[in-house]
Amino acid sequence: MYLSIQECIDMSDLTEDEVLAIAEHENLPEMLAVELGSYLVHNSGGERRIKQMIQDDIRDAQARGNHKHAAVLKHVLRHFVEHHAAAKA
User: Model confidence over 43-70: pLDDT tens digits?
Assistant: First the structure.
């Protein structure tokens, strides 16, 4: 039996949007971003690293003039920080 990508996301302690932000930052397929994100969120310093990735994505979107995408990413960042205590630092 195989797991769906949604089942993997559900087990990662990340949202799909957070995974997509990691995929965007690291230029990875979504499934690899789930694996990387799950690893990071469960290891010391990993939540801060994910926060930095999302912040980088926001800056990149703003630099490209894609303010709609930047706004979406700001919402993703806000949600991530609210749900991951180590990211608040």
Answer: 999 999 999 999 999 999 999 999 999 9
